[in-house]
Amino acid sequence: MDDIPVILVAAGRGERAGAGLPKQYRQICGKPLLWWALRSLLACEGLGPIQIVINPEFKTLHEDVVAEFNLPAAVSGGATRQASVLAGLEALGSGNVAHVMIHDAARPFVSNDLVKRLRQSLGEGNDGAIPVVAMTDTVKRCHEGLVVETLDRSTLARAQTPQAFGFHAILAAHRAVVGTELTDDAAVAETAGLKVAAVTGDEGNSKVTTAEDFEIAAKRLGRTEIRVGTGLDVHAFAPGDHVMLCGIRIEHEATLDGDSDADVGLHVLVDAMLGAMGAGDLGVHFPVGDPAWKGRASSDLVAVACDLMRERQVRLVHADITLICQKPRLAIHQPAMKQKVSDLLNVDPSRVNIKVTSTDGLGFTGRGEGIAGQAAVTLEVPVPWD
Ligand code: CTP
Ligand code: MG
């Protein structure tokens, strides 16, 4: 069997999805719904050119979406889905076209296996083949808020698209029912007495109809990567009576020298967060000598990094901070530091780890000249689709 051309109807107004642009032009994970529908169709084998049917009011928007694909020019649809399908069928011409698949732009999850099952069913001599999924819930007929009767669900099924047909048969069937309002093409085929096979559908091939469906689709289509950033920092001791470490005040015979409160624990944390986001380092965001940051609590730096994460929809998976010094003794403060850091990051404490170590008297930390810190932060970062 040759490749089967597809009519992709995208001329609706998407009213049930709420106010705004028609749903096919609304974004899911950075791309319009129509783009996702095209992408899934183009990944299937055995499909021919894709003829899109649009509302000409949105022609410019449409051309932006399809610019990257090599498709026939879109044709204008009508006031109902049925009218739009007929416009698509007429545009395909009756020349050499033997079969056609008719698909909704609102379904972005078509699979190759489903297309294969439809092609196979057409090859078995049916006039048409449509995907159906079984009803698993008990089905009621209701009227004015009351249950009227329970239907026998064993004979009922939900119809999906793409729906496949012999081209001439479905074109004739559509031409014969112009002006009615049938919601799928199998219903049009029924009026002409065509033999339409019910092929096993795909629960995953859902239609995006409501605002909630957009959220579900975004979860299925979103791509993320795990990225790790590291931080390293050192501050020298200066005369004073306490140090700030991981947001906790610790009494000591000296303080740490620095522009801010010199919290080496939070500095390495922020540096590692920036690193994992590919967002530079502390020096870029909080320039040395900048009066705006002079004397500020380092928890403010954490807040800036958290804002950046929120803006980019980044999720913190884990933060591991190591403090390196001979004095003061820090082990007793570890639980408070862990709690403080998880509060600043607004994550469960299980996502934060604080380690402390001495260097056995060696090096500048061993000689008590200052405190060093290092951190590794793991983030889950959204990755755009190309
Ligand atoms: N469709 C169309 N022409 C119409 C109406 C619908 O091409 N006059 C298309 C839609 O763009 C969609 C498919 O038919 O891809 C299925 O219709 P539906 O999910 O009902 O979409 P809308 O009609 O746009 O949405 P709503 O019913 O919520 O307004
Ligand atoms: Mg509709």
Mind summarizing the main beta sheet?
A: 8 strands, mixed
How many domains? The number is: 2
* Bound small-molecule species: cytidine-5'-triphosphate, magnesium ion
Q: Which shape, going by the Cα principal axes?
A: elongated
Rg on CA atoms, Å: 31 Å
Question: Structural class, from helix and strand content?
Answer: alpha/beta
CATH class of the largest domain: Alpha Beta
The number of strands is: 19
Looking at this structure, what is the CATH superfamily of the largest domain? Spore Coat Polysaccharide Biosynthesis Protein SpsA, Chain A
Task: Report how far apart the termini are.
Answer: 32 Å
Overall mean confidence score, pLDDT: 95
Number of helices: 12
CATH topology of the largest domain: Spore Coat Polysaccharide Biosynthesis Protein SpsA, Chain A
Q: Can you name the CATH architecture of the largest domain?
A: Alpha-Beta Complex
Low-confidence segments = none
Strand content: 25-35%
- The percent range for helix content is 25-40%
Task: Give a written overview of the molecule.
The longest helix is centred in the C-terminal third of the chain and has 14 residues, at 264-277. The mean pLDDT is 95. It is built from twelve helices and 19 strands. The protein has 386 residues and is an alpha/beta fold. The two termini are 32 Å apart. The protein has two domains: 4-221, Alpha-Beta Complex (Spore Coat Polysaccharide Biosynthesis Protein SpsA, Chain A); 224-382, 2-C-methyl-D-erythritol 2,4-cyclodiphosphate synthase (60s Ribosomal Protein L30, Chain: A, 2-Layer Sandwich). The strands form five sheets. Strands 1, 4, 5, 6, 7, 10, 11 and 12 form an eight-stranded mixed sheet that branches. A five-stranded mixed sheet has the order 16-13-19-17-18. A two-stranded antiparallel ribbon has the order 2-3. It has helices at residues 33-42, 59-66, 81-92, 112-123, 167-176, 185-191, 211-221, 264-277, 282-285, 298-311, 334-345, 363-366, and strands at residues 4-10, 27-28, 31-32, 47-54, 75-76, 99-104, 128-134, 140-143, 146-150, 157-159, 163-166, 196-200, 224-239, 242-245, 248-251, 254-256, 315-324, 352-357, 370-382. The protein binds cytidine-5'-triphosphate and magnesium ion (MG). The site of cytidine-5'-triphosphate has 23 residues, from strand 1 and helix 3.
